[in-house]
Write a structure and sequence with these properties.
This protein is of the alpha/beta class and 650 residues long. Helices cover 13% and strands 29% of the residues. Helix 7 links the parallel strand 21 and strand 22. Bound molecules: the ligand [NH3+][C@H]1C[C@H](O)[C@@H](O)[C@@H]1CO.
Length: 650
Amino acid sequence: TTVSVSATASHAIPTTLFGQMFEDINSGDGGLYAEMLQNRAFQQVTPGTSDALDFWSAIAGANIAVIADPKPVSDALPNSLQVSVPGKSTTAGFANSGFWGINVNSSWTYTASFYYKFPTSSSQSVKFTVELRSASGKTLASSATTASGTATTWKQVQLTLKPTTSAPDVNNQFVVLVQPSGSATTTVDFAMFSLFPPTFKGRSNGMRMDIAETLVEMGPKFFRFPGGNNLEVRPSCRGQTTATRWQWNATVGSLLDRPGRVGDWGYVNTDGLGLLEYLQFFEDADMEPIMAVWSGYSLGGTSLPENELAPYIQQSIDQACYDLCCSASGHLSLYALDQLHYSRSSQGYRSPGALRASLGHPEPFTLNYVEIGNEDFFAADTYPYRFQDFVGNLSKAFPQLTFIATSDVGDPTLTPTPQAYDVHVYQTPGWFAQNVFSYDSFARDGQKYFEGEYAAISTNANDLFGTPSDGRLTFPTMQSSSGEAAFMTGLERNSDIVFAASYAPLLQHVNSTQWTPDLVSFDAGSVVRSTSFYTQKLFATNQGDEFMPSTLPNQNGTVFWSISRLTSTLEVIIKIANSGNSSAQLAFALPFSDVASSGTLQLLTGAETASNTPEAPNTVVPKTSTITTGKTIDYTAPAFSVSIIRVVAS
Ligand SMILES: [NH3+][C@H]1C[C@H](O)[C@@H](O)[C@@H]1CO
């Protein structure tokens, strides 16, 4: 096939075109958020039930129990770990098993901390020895401090741990030994444990380095958060209380003030990864937020009536306000504070912006996009008033924001007409290759689109969300990734109306997964970049700034291309997706008089079902080489491949 390339660009390609979609779906706590202890503060558990002590265990004769502390460490954290050990014991204590393991790296300095108090005062002292210990019992790191038995009010211990050696695997534990000097049985209350490794950019309460670095490596220009389903109210045995929705103000401030919540994926979110941590990460990673606000719909259930929306609208204004500036709308909506104790400033409740400043970020963050809800096609009947009321109030407070609707495009009719719609699609690899032109027929009427969630998820069109035995992919394959790449050439061609696109879900912990496939997989010690990760990376890091029309690919074919130009370097960038099982010979005829005689090729290719997995993380990786180029570039795209050709031409 000969592909003639136009000399005239058709449109500018938005810098935001490729980015990431994130929610805590086995991906925040124990994943992107660097805290290494699981169930660190006994949040949202009922003392005396089996899950209260999840991931904690007693050692050598200690008795441990989670109690509703009569004098809790904070209003938001009502539970403590009460530990009793025999007098003069040197080996009794307790351990935490982390998020299916703990990575012990001798080049790292760890920060361990916890709060303690003695329920009854005594004259004896008690030594706390904190260790990182292999499952076989070998001490890898140790640090100790001594406490006075007279401490009947909460005290914080902070210790650093430097392992003498790296552990060969992640089967390690965090251990606290409680060693009384006296002979009497000793009881100590503990709260708010934490074990942090070094973090991405060294941010306190920050992100896990290897995962954050992997996400940044992909080259994202935006980050949609906090969901996805995890933004929403989760139907629970206690009924659909709106209090289970994600609330920004429950995720900011001291960790002692963050109650955590049972997220939509059925486990407790510590909310240690909160609004400030998200926004700081985006700033550090040079990407901008697409921030969702809850819009009054409870997953699988009811929507709030219009006359009950006001406090939630105010909370969403405060949420945006926190990010932006906040000389504007002054107060924190009292309603949002029902579950949260807020430290008052002298002049009453601080404005969210002042709050943000007080937490160490005086400058506003970048915020241009706010999404109203998530997948509101599930509640299309109530979305018109919910969308209108949220956008009406938010746009009054922040006229510079672009608001994104989440119902189906044009159905129902919304007022105001949405500036953009968030379109989601989970389908087969074949569907993506067959729908490369889905946006070509859209009207150019000012309406913009955000392909907020897409992935080839199954080879079985009749059971897309089924089990692996029924076609569901557990990891992306070269068949799924090349299908997605085909679709992405269409997104780039239509980037005059598609301003952003992100694969979903982004991350999964392989020891606790509820949704496959995912772009990046990890366990406590390693990260796996999928074939679809490399596809996203090849597109996002080879962005032109203007689109060059060319001979259109055959809509019914399996080979697709997209050509752009990077004006700053005079490069022509040719992206080619071959989603079929045979190679394709292409000839690109460039309209430039002066074309370099060699260019670079980045090629991702492998067998149809080839995947990168924890067992074989580098089965398929991109390879860069030099190719001969000229006014005509002949190229054979291998079966199941993604190719990027860059050549200087003018
Ligand atoms: N059900 C999908 C759609 C929703 O928005 C996400 O939370 C889920 C996984 O990506």
